[in-house]
Fold these 2 entries.
Entry 1:
Amino acid sequence: MGSVQTNDGASAGLTADSTRKVIVAGAQLGAINVDTPRSEGIQRMLKLMDDAHSQKAKLIVYPEIAPVTFFPRHILEGEELEQYFEREVDGDPTQSTNLKPLFDKAREYKMDMYLGYAECTGDEHVHYNTCVYYSGQIDKVVSKYRKVHLPGTFEPYERKDATNQLEKRYFKPGDLGFEAFRAPNLVPDALTKKSGAKLNEPDTLGKGDPIVGMIICNDRRWPEAWRAYGLQGVELMLCGYNTTAWAPELLGVNSKVPTKEKTKTEALFHNKLCVTYNSYANSCFSINVAKCGMEDGKYPLIGGSCIVDCDGEVVAEASTEEDELIVAEIDLGMCRRGKEKVFAFEKHRRIEHYGRISEQTGVREPEFL
Ligand code: CDV
């Protein structure tokens, strides 16, 4: 399997598997306005995919609801709203009219792809904030995820100039849970069923095809989501986002950073805090990708797209608020250290004390003295 032990690592009982290296890319998108044609957004995404291909990336990650403006800030109904949703053909997003060129090119390049879009189901016409993982090598949508943590409000704010976040109005909460999956052939020589190897044995852990998890934007702020994947051995988390840099009604105002400019710095800080800590605490890499810049001249979205390693360190980071590709070669074999030592869940977790986390939603303070 090409597993190597360094002298120091060997004495500490650590293994690193050099065959689990893969080049990955995050395709940050700059602003997409209300009047930007869908085809223009798709063309920009294809250009970033060309760039990723020329840099030998085997996986590309796009933002949340990638090809269109972040429409949940607007009050919309009827066709004005429906135009933003993608319709799958018999449940197959690869055939959806708008998205098809992306799947076609990923297939041509044999590149895997995380693609975020607003989904309208065919049968019951239900709306979700969705992403899929498409394997360009085997031409298959391997997994779909629907955003669980929908931020914002159902009703618009009363103040006319407030920035709305009407995700609770336009989407149903995701119904697919946090199901990890394996990305076929993303690394060479992975153990498969055919080998007869047993799952979850000390010598087969971390040796199959890479274990991937998907979340969308606000989900990244919830450690519960990461841990649900962590408990399935996730090695690579993928997250697209549209994060407003200034929305006082929605986010409140921090008295330490009351100006619009400084609020953006705070939003960037919180983004990085979430993805670095949770990558560390679940010993996984993460690829976190923004749609950013000033949409329609007045709605600022943060950039800060980054690839984070399993120690919580940023290994690639966007420097603009425009279309920009970030690329890194990551070694998923590095995940073993955290999973076998500090975050060896099977040795250290104390589930008898975690009941509240799944039984209770809101806060219940202790009795008054
Ligand atoms: N699209 C999002 O989910 N945005 C939220 C904002 C509203 C806080 C986020 O968590 O980035």
Entry 2:
Amino acid sequence: MSRAWNDLHAHRSKLDGVTLRDLVRAPDRARDFVHTVGDFTVDLTRHLATPDTLTLLMALAREREVEAMRDAMFAGEPVNTTEGRAAMHMALRNCSDRPMQADGQDVMPGVRDVLRHMQSFCKSIHDGSWTGATDRRIENVVNIGIGGSDLGPVMATQALRPWWTSGIRAHFVSNVDPSHLADTLSSLDPETTLFIVASKTFGTQETLANAHAARRWVTEALGSDAVSKHFVAVSTNADRVRDFGIDTENMFGFWDWVGGRYSMWSAIGLSIAVAIGFDQFEAMLEGAYEIDQHFRDTPIETNIPVLLGLLDCWYRECWGCQSRAVLPYDQHLHRLPAYLQQLEMESNGKHVRIDGTEVTHGTAFVVWGEPGTNGQHSFHQMLHQGTTMVPCDFLVAAQSECPGSDDRQAMLLANCLAQSEALARGKTLDEVTADLAKTGLDDEQIRELAPHKVMPGNRPSTTMLYPRLDPTQLGRLIALYEHRVFVQGAVWGIDSFDQWGVELGKTLAGDILPGLTGDAASGDETTLRLVDHLNTLGQSRI
Ligand code: G6Q
């Protein structure tokens, strides 16, 4: 174990008996543990950390050369070493005139060209100059994509629902389960529907299968000439787009230095831009750009993604935490946990380091969550009294986007703050006993009931708050998480930008599929028995 980790482990044992009740009371706690970018505030005061912890975490960051790795990423070096690629999603939201390079070339002219193409496309949908094959305006846009070509767009589009352009509705189909497309199309009219087929490779089985089914739906209703008016593509692969039958004039490009789960800022975000309007899409890019500057230029002691990433490593390594909950007190962020599951778990769910050696630390957290206050009526019980410590992220906007929200927004805010306080403060046996004594129970009844009402407390959380969840704020929020994940990966020494672990399952599915469509499957004994069973049940026939 390295020196910095040894020091952190030794320090961790000194924190036994230190409580969050005491820590939050310390003078200057807010000075050391509250940070802002513009009006976006990140409150870290409810973390099991003292100023000494932060000093030791900074030593860890220096030992792991986090700043040098960050600088290499911003310089466009091939930090995705196993795929030999840069990770330059920051170029997609570079709102300055500065060039940004990937693999030694300025990528900004290409980025700006695609943005202009997206802008003119959005305008043509919104002003009605792009019409369907029967000259009717487009009213519904369906994004067909999966993984990184779905999760960011659907999360952001849902998050920014109050900004939707009137007259346009956005839909998302990802699952190859035929119900997903069928349920989506059931209320749509082919004449007023446009499909965005979003696939970096344009080779993804699920996306192509759904796109072909959507094309059948359009051509059966409107004839095969209708495809050009009802399909556009977002991809890096023009040949495959052409083979599908989409004119490459109607293709929005991006580049291999944009990882799928980092691609919502690229043309993969076209559905977001169509839904909220191009100006608002640009506002989202600007928010992310602010965080890029903050991450690149701020000393690590006050650098929010660095602090968040280091605290994650602290809990994972020194406190044995295995999962982290994301609890947006905002219904519009209901897809954020799913989005972050991919961002964190696909990026850092790795067991070897960049040099191929086994990691000696736990890596990615299991990330999970639901919007508050719903979660309070289900899994929060475990957060408060379970045997596992789960650090939590609370996210909340001061203002509701909903007109006439009476005092429900205040209730939402009060509940959010109450949960993080309850997790931190807990309730001791003495406090429980004193409360029960006031209820008129006798001593024996109190003795029996009290242990069940004790809350251990000392459970850490981050609170992120901002005036309102507008496009700029969402851009900040997501970029903050992206860089936080980068910092985790840098500390753990892993390649956060590849995803080799998803390949084996894809290959096996290809081997099994024939067995479910009338030919012979290959697989192990269990698979072959289950294939037979499914065929007997008749589930697989189309
Ligand atoms: C993300 C992953 C993965 C990818 C999907 C879709 O980082 O690479 O989730 O986005 O497999 O891939 P395509 O965009 O190529 O269809």
